[in-house]
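Predicting holo structure, D-xylulose bound.
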Amino acid sequence: MRNPVSRLSWRTYLRCASVADRINRARFETAYYLGIDSSTQSLKGLVIDPEAGVLAASAAVNFKADLPQYNCPDGVLAHPDPLVKHADPLLWLAALDLMLSRLRDSGVAMERIAAVGGDGQQHGSVYLNDRFADVLQGLKPERSLAEQLAVALARPTSPIWMDSSTSAECRELDARFGARLQADTGSPAIERFTGPQIRKFAKTEPARYAQTARVHLVSSFLCSTLIGGDAPIDAGDGAGMNLLNLRTMAWDEAIAEFTAPGLLAKLPKVGSGVAGRLHPYFAKYGLRPGIPVAVWTGDNPASLVGTGAWSAGVAVVSLGTSDTFFAALDAFRTDPDGCGHVFGNPAGGCMSLTCFKNGSLARDRVRREAGAEWTFFDRTAFDLTLPGNGGRLALPWFEAEITPPVLTPGLRANFDFRAAAPEVRIRATVEGQALALRSHAQWIGRFGAIRVTGGASKSSGIRQTLADVFQARVESIAVADSAALGAAMLAAHADGVPLAAMTAAFSPVSAVCEPRAEYAAVYDGLLPVIRELEKAAPAG
Ligand code: XUL
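Done. Tokens:
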């Protein structure tokens, strides 16, 4: 029997239900909602119980540890050109199967899940041939998703957000559309965005492009798999394609046709709310076939929801494989520097975002090369050095950077990085990243409070540095995995549960780090220094 809350709106239920009804119901089952986050290095599932305000279960799959046979340890296939970053799309399907089996084996009551939502790393694209629709519809539980969908790929690999190899295509789009591209799609032509990636594919592999019946994002590809049909792309993820007109919230026909011939017909619909009903394939994990599946979004828009920042006034710093700064926008506004983006906000309206490619993998490399343990990185390094680091700063651009767009990888530093003590290298890196975040997020606005999320937000040294650099209160929320949480909340929302009630239950501030006013001038003085360092050549 379906949960009554799934059918009635939350408010109507509370108004109509007698106390006896409610007590009675609580004795039976409350509805659970599953959020799935398909990120760069892992795939996670989180089950929430909104009525009780608790997390019911979680499961995760790490690509390096759990699926080494796909050769994407950090989520990327090896390639001789450092600007080319592709992944195997079958990896994401294998991870979905494995995560769901782990969730089932955790003992959680899968049958209580009333709807599923999800999000994916943004910009990555999957190219499907004309067998896709039939294969999806006829999914057989006795075979894995990866095995069955392999024949539906028109292109064996998927370019992901880390790819920087489409500068030529970006220049062509700029030459054709000029300032209109940013004014209407929220971003100028950007290397990792899906439009330039599709254009490069159509130019370099015209035969495979011709065999492509559908181009999906990572998010809409996995959502399609869940419903066994073609899922829409939402405006949160769709805006990362240089193809969605944010003024009309529809594909921009002229831009799509210039990007690649016949592209409009290969794109799924733009949509929100419920994408479709869960395919019977997933009954093998104990899920009820036919429950609603919400339209998936991008990991950053999902995180905006999960951190409770979906209404204007709160900014978020997410420290993951990429570092991002984002906030809900009160009005459509673009970055005058051209580095930042406007995406759709899954809760309505738009959000702003600035993204840095060299996030957690770069921090880990600095730590490893300094011979330091994480405990030293998180705490001791910050006790041994003073804020400002005597003016020594570093930008750990081991990969070509996105913000600002710099194609020549290599660490930049204004001192002899390799000869310096581990604690000096660590502070130089963390302060360099924090100053770059502040400098490139200025167009988004000044905020008295910033919410942090992502793995590195657990570090007290990093949180204090952010508080001092931004001179803002840095707030943590209890759930580190804010994208999966946001995806679960969006599933519940599509099933009638109000977002505000869930935000109060799941995203309260659990810890605060106050800024130290005595360091304000130090970091104001370092802002121009970091801008200069961005222009420097790699340190040997
Ligand atoms: C955002 C971006 C990354 C990816 C991976 O524009 O490229 O944050 O979404 O997390």
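Residues 188 and 451 are 27 Å apart (CA to CA).
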